[in-house]
Design goal:
single chain; 269 residues; Jelly Rolls; ten-stranded mixed sheet; seven-stranded antiparallel sheet
Length: 269
């Protein structure tokens, strides 16, 4: 039966060859092969940060920015009173407030970083970093999910970054030109759950990486990171305010939620 079907299909293609060619061209666009859906890749992954890590927060996460700061680039000061975890979901709430020692602080919020670092190397040339988020997107709100050099800056990779709008920015610094690569993707309702993922691959035997940025299973950007290999990267979640996201920020509370954060690595490309 299979051979008969193949014969009939081949005959039909001879009669209407142009129509068959058109379908062949369209089909890859309709069914893209994504790393998240390719079963052949799945067995190679070794999980370094489990998706339920927020339930054991002190085991896997540390408070504030990894370089010890509680203020950074925006107008929010970070403190532990502004986050909570319930049923595997972290809620970060930015509240209006002015710090007595720093008038430029207009909010209190929260940030944390994973104790597990990401280090692309010859032994582990492929990494996957992913998380699900509900994000604010009004002027003055600056949620982010990003990788930052642990020993020096750069390198940096921004997997999710909203700067006062519904555009998510995926950014890499430095690129092959020693500058920023930035691609904006408009997200329909960022306040709903969306999945943001980065795949970091070593390029041959160089010190550079390809970073694939994915949103909800769709590849939105491929960028090159210069001198990322053998550089430990900290994974950071934060809700900054104002700064690059504009002013003035909200007059009331702002909420960001996170869940299913994971880091995986593979010894093979």
């Amino acid at each position: 039966m299979k051979r008969l079907n193949q014969f009939l299909f081949a005959s039909l293609c001879v009669l209407i060859g142009t129509a068959c060619q058109k379908q062949t061209a369209v089909e890859p666009q309709q069914q893209p092969a994504t790393p998240e859906e390719t079963q052949d890749n799945a067995p190679t992954w070794v999980t370094m940060l489990p998706t339920n890590s927020l339930n054991s927060f002190s085991t896997y996460w540390s408070n504030f920015y990894p370089w010890g700061a509680i203020d950074h680039n925006g107008s929010a000061r970070m403190r532990t009173q502004n986050y909570s975890i319930s049923s595997g979901v972290m809620t970060i709430t930015a509240t209006p407030g002015t710090a007595a020692d720093k008038p430029s602080i207009h909010y209190y919020s929260y940030t944390c970083y994973a104790k597990q670092q990401v280090t692309v190397s010859a032994s582990w040339p492929k990494w996957r970093v992913s998380g699900e988020f509900q994000c604010p997107s009004v002027t003055g709100t600056w949620p982010a999910f990003w990788l930052n050099g642990a020993n020096q800056w750069p390198p940096e990779s921004d997997i999710m970054e909203f700067k006062g709008s519904t555009t998510n920015w995926t950014n890499t610094y430095k690129n092959q030109n020693g500058q920023w690569s930035s691609v904006g993707t408009v997200i329909n309702t960022p306040s709903n759950w969306h999945t943001y993922t980065a795949y970091l691959y070593r390029i041959g035997t160089t010190n550079n990486v390809t970073i694939e940025y994915w949103i909800d299973g769709v590849n939105v950007s491929n960028q090159t990171g210069q001198n990322f290999v053998n550089e430990p990267l900290n994974l950071i979640i934060d809700l900054q305010m104002e700064g690059s996201s504009g002013t003035p920020g909200p007059t009331g509370n702002t909420v960001m939620k996170a869940r299913n954060i994971t880091i995986q690595r593979s010894a093979t490309l």
